[in-house]
Amino acid sequence: MTITNFQTLVLAAPLKKPMGGISHSGPVYSRKTALIQVMTDEGLVGLGESFGIPELVPPIVQHVFRPLLIGQDALDTEGLWDRMYRGLGYHGQKGLLVEVLSGIDIALWDLRGKAVGQPIYKLLGETHRTTLPAYAAGMYFSQVDNLRAEARSYVEQSFSAVKLKIGVGNKVPDEVAVRTVRETVGPDVRVMADLNCGYDYEKALEAGKKLEPYDLHWLEEPVPPEYLEDYHRLRQTLTMKIAGGEAEYTRWGFKAMFEKEAVDVAQPDLMRCGGLTEGRRIAQLAAEYGVPVSTHAWLSIVGMVASLHYGAACPLFESFEFEMTENPLRDDITVQKLRAERSQVKVFEGPGLGLDLIDEQVARYLVMKG
Ligand SMILES: [Mg+2]
Question: Which of 365, 255, 291, 336 is nearest to 34 (CA)?
């Protein structure tokens, strides 16, 4: 089966209610993504998603990766990963180019599954689980009353773990936000807090110390990903776990994190770290270092479902991030829907990702095609 063409669909879905901010970043008014389709001579089409800045993904697919992949065997997933990565040469082993590579790699795995009529997770190696423990992620910067209502809604939906955003730019002090959520969900629900790289070491240490009485399960991305030594120091000093990795790339990036003993929980994002091919290597590496994986996924249902297949095959797995805030790109664009029941999500069983796009819905949100 030969690769014949590529198409990137840039989607933007306006939100009814703007989403609150995170550290260093204001409210979000629409959810955006870039879906990548890989076409073949047998008529099968693979679907993937890239974390890359959506409007920049189509030209990168066309000018960087298309020339490397046209005419190649679509089922040679690992070989094509090497061809793409080595093809980047001196242009970048991290960043936007690897994010686009990631989206293409996911589409190639979707193709591979469709070609043999199997869900991706069965092709990734040993299946460790077909139902994944999930946590509800949301609670962006907002007023205390809204935080309380949102936390309550997750408990009512039977989530046993929830995550809120804290950090720079939040009008509600970190301690007040965490206390509000802890008091709302009670002692038996796990609470995690995400700083989105908002602080430096001193501020993260001060914030972490203030949050210790609230039994946080983890503190996420306390400082920017470059400062692995600071992650390590925070891990040694604070009582809660330290999580990170959503902004990291490839096995080499994660190896450095593990070598430095920087995190208790690793959070690869498949749309960024190098797709499923590289994600699988990262999962093996994490297991070797004894670091559990919790997937990061934020964009559309495509990447979230890729993360489900991945989680099924992760040897050492902690949880699936279920981003719960308003997101038409999660809820509206495919026939299949993502649901959590009692804090568990079932892996999809259809061939490939197991997703069928609804063309009219895709057309509704389409802002660029390339
Ligand atoms: Mg995060």
Answer: 365
